[in-house]
Amino acid sequence: MQLNMLKGKIHRVTVTEARLDYVGSITIDSDLLDAAGILEYEKVAVVNVNNGQRLETYTIAGEPGSGVICLNGAAAHFFDPGDTAIIMCYCQMDAEEAKTHKPKVVFVDEKNHATRVTNYEKHGQIA
After folding, report:
1. In the annotation, is 22 catalytic?
2. Is 123 helix (H, G, I), strand (E, B) or coil?
3. What is the pTM assigned to this prediction?
4. In terms of CATH architecture, what is 2-118?
5. pLDDT of residue 27
6. At CA 89, angle to CA 87 and CA 90, rounded to 5?
7. Does the annotation place 18 within a ligand binding site?
8. Exactly one of 22, 41, 58, 90 is catalytic; which is it?
């Protein structure tokens, strides 16, 4: 049996852009993708803390160090610049792998630069 587990999370970024006239996806500063272990074109879930909207899309790597978080295409309807978002990526693993798996969690400052990379422990506690 394969389980869907949290692989990486970028916690409480600030949306910098929302571009309706684009094919789709979310552009994320490549430094943040790397820190969270998320690949370009990988599927992510994005949650808007301000309005509760949740969607799935794929990532596009943005300029490293830019702090860019841009919702593109239809996703732009659900996010405005300045909104706070959480970006989560999942992976599949068997039950044995899941017992010891610890996802990467990236915390950011007000300019969307990583300030801390850690792992979740039991019940959402931060290591």
Report:
1. no
2. helix
3. 0.93
4. Beta Barrel (2.40)
5. 97
6. 145
7. no
8. 58
